[in-house]
Amino acid sequence: MMDQAPVLMIVVPVFASLALTLIGPLGHRAAYGLLIASLSLSLTASLAMLVQVVQTGRAVHYRMGDWMPPMGIELVIDHLSAGVLALVGTCSLLTAIYSLHTARQDNPDRLHHYYALFALLVAGLLGMTAAGDVFNLYVLLEISALSSYGMLARGRGPAYYATFRYLVMGTIGACFYLLGVGYLYIMTGSLNMADLAEILSRPELRESVSVRIGFTLIILGIWIKMALFPLHAWLPNAYSRAGTTTACLIAPLMTKVSVYVMLRMMYTVFSADYVFQQIAWSRLVIFLASAAAVLGMITALSQRDLRKMLTYIIVAEIGYLTGGAWLANTAGYTGAVYHILADGIITLCLFMAVGAIIYRTGESRAAAMQGIFQRMPVTAAVFLVGAASVLGIPPTCGFFSKWYLLQGAVQAGAWVFVAALIIAGLVAAVMFFKLLEKAFFGRLDDLMIEKSNGKPGTAALKIRMDEAPLTMLLPLVFTGAALVGLGIYTNEVVQYLIRWSVPSGI
Amino acid sequence: MDDLFYFIIAKYNYWASLVLLFIGLYGMIVRNNLMKKIIGMVIFQTAILLFIVSIGVKRGATVPIIEFSADKQPLLEASAYANPLPHVLILTAIVVGVAVLGVALALLQKIQRVHGTIEEDEILEDLRK
Amino acid sequence: MVWDTSLLWQFDILILLMMVICAVAALALDGLISSAIVTGVYSFLICLMWTHMMAVDVAFTEAAVGAAISTVIFLGTAQYINRWIKADRPGEQGIKQITLVIAVICAVMMLAATRDLPDWADPASPASTHLSPGFIRQGYHETATPNVVTAVLADYRSYDTMFESVVVFAAALVVMVVLRHTSHKHRKVLRLRPKREGRDTVLRGAAQSIIPVMQIFALYVLCHGHYSPGGGFQGGVIFGASFILLALCYNLKFSMNRFREHAVLWCCAGGVLLYAGIGAVCLALGWNFLGYEALARFLGVTEVMARSHGILAVEVGVGITVMAVMVSLYYDLASGGDLEEGL
Known about the structure:
The complex is a heterotrimer of chains A (506), B (129) and C (343). Chain A has 506 residues and is mainly alpha-helical. Chain A has helices spanning 5-22, 28-56, 79-106, 111-130, 134-153, 160-188, 193-200, 203-206, 209-226, 234-240, 244-269, 272-279, 282-301, 306-325, 330-361, 372-375, 377-391, 397-412, 415-441, 444-451, 470-488, 490-501; strands spanning 60-63, 74-77. Chain A has a domain at 281-506. By secondary structure, chain B is mainly alpha-helical. The radius of gyration of chain B is 22 Å and the shape is elongated. A two-stranded antiparallel ribbon of chain B has the order 1-2. Classes of the chains: A mainly alpha (506), B mainly alpha (129), C mainly alpha (343). Chains B and C meet through helix 1, helix 2, strand 1 and helix 3 of B and helix 1, helix 2, helix 3, helix 4 and helix 6 of C.
């Protein structure tokens, strides 16, 4: 069974989604149970592969339909994809557990169809990460995109226009990617990543203008998908109007997997040598990344809505990741890959904490944070850990990714990026201290009075513990622990996982 | 003159698809009406499909269905058939295209119901209210 | 170098010019219904182009999907939206001009770079010499399927095709989730559709005689995909179109009585389930996912024939899903999600 793990991981959620479509009459609990069971199986398979890859030190290749690549399609799970697969599996399972109350709140009707889309989205993300074929990646990209449109359209309040804009931008991104694949196919005749890499390393193709256009189109398409500044405008609107479960699933994973695809294209299909010697955009990209980090954080600071604030933090984090990936040195690359894992969990943690607060207070403005430490101490504590990770306070994992990124930036002499990291960190500090001040010292009754239209007498002034339900708390606490755990075991993660995936030539 | 003629003949297909591509992209970004954006999206997608299908063309080749000689032996000369791989990719991509189109139209109907218009500037005004 | 005149370039250029005109017209016209029709014309022209490029399977699919289904769902949507666009406001002209300039610069750069691409229809180009000869030479021996496109689609790249059927399934699901969701407050629904009882004798007579033929043709296309252009998609779309035609000539309820909402949903999922199920059976028999050779012992045929049968089985799966999804898209989009009355 072990050698079938790569495909089972992807296909089990697909089967679950088909079953979920049809089991409407069985009710909410059945759908929830089925979703959790399938995602647990999928996670088990991806963890088994992670263990296998780390133990053997070799990538797992799976030949679809027993055809030899490059004629057939293969799945390739190396150290980089094994890490991302484990991240996707873990985050999606935690979100599924978390969704028991929130999904029903956001989806009064057709909950089983919503869960079917949930499973399809996870299958798409896992398939994208495991793909060893550039066209297969496109098909799975569209699956995850389509199911995310459906999930985002069911937002809090009408989210159709925001989703429509996301659809337009997402389609442009995917089409650019497809056209880039077309250019590569025209010049090489192949679609398999390993085969493409071999053909593209030939000297006559290094100089080719068409290959360069292909690279540009692919990277531009991925940048639109991952919302790199200045192509980010669709993200905050689409994500901040999403329902809680949708936001918890999509916000941490979609952009991170897109960053993974960028790394895959840059380093596996093309080579570090090609990207940094032949294309040589690093300076421009690092500048964009720095702008994304600083402007993202500043915009986040100016937001009053908690969810919107978090979405701008994603834009800033994408800046960190892109900058790290384009620094062209080992420390920068390590920082970027480590930060994919770390930021996935950080984002999940913050969105879950805010989701719990919204669930209890029914309020998404920053005012909802008033006195949250007394009302929801566990949620508030985990939120504090998440905030500490964004700021980069040891021993949380955010500290170590910042450390690697800074180290890489200094080595590369990219002072703009160093400055951007520091400024963005300071802005984030101001933002979170403002929030935490409210959470610690804010008086609960302010919010209550406001909610009861200024009549203090009618509001319950007694401070009451009103923690989120257990299905929400457990995943939340787990992410908080994971943030610290990942930080403590940074050395192991870097040594056994990331170091192996560092491409040659940087 | 012959060179220029040859250059045009040898590349016109790529040109046409690139021109269509930019017409579609322009419509998608610039038009204010959301239905026009969707139509721009359709043109943009098909232009890319046209580009990729034209990779599969081979001079003097026929449709990629194996023919048989008089004694029932398959004729497997690679140069006699067009390249099948781009066709396969585009079959997939056409279906993806209609899937995205369906979702876009569904969202469009909902936008009309919620905002009462499908003009982008009016929707933005409605959202600001 | 002598230009081979077997490719009629004059014909090509004429079609391409008409396509560009249609594209511009579709974007420039003020009436949305005329835009939708012109988009259909554009799709039809691209079919001609593809037939001429020897991509018959692709042209077949585009004719069924692009020129037929897309146009119908465009028109279905046009009942529920403002049909005339408003003149663009002058305030945003600046951005538009900048976009135009950037688009033109990119276009010129990319057009200039086509110099670097291999010549069109060059048999010695990398795309025609690297992988594709392998498919043509070995495909028949390894899968017993003369239509190489079918062999590659449903066997060599069957994993892609499985996810492609998942994509259409997802589309039906998303449209359902979006349109049939009514918890938000709506403005008054625009209802421009006329009341039609479907009593038009000419239409009914035509439908009665065409629909059975269409359905048989669809089954033929589906089953004969090994030997001629066609396969699961094309067959599925044509079969779905027969139900859409029924709804157009009679009314939505009439069609829904024959193909109920529930059955549509089961077919949507069932087709994918058949496809993925075959993959899983192969896996359970000890081969890799979608390795149809596993079915050889089971069916009592050689491994090559097992691949051929496997292709047919998954094509049936694709056909069922595509048929149901096309019908489902029509039901939802043409009735605005309430499934009361269609186009």
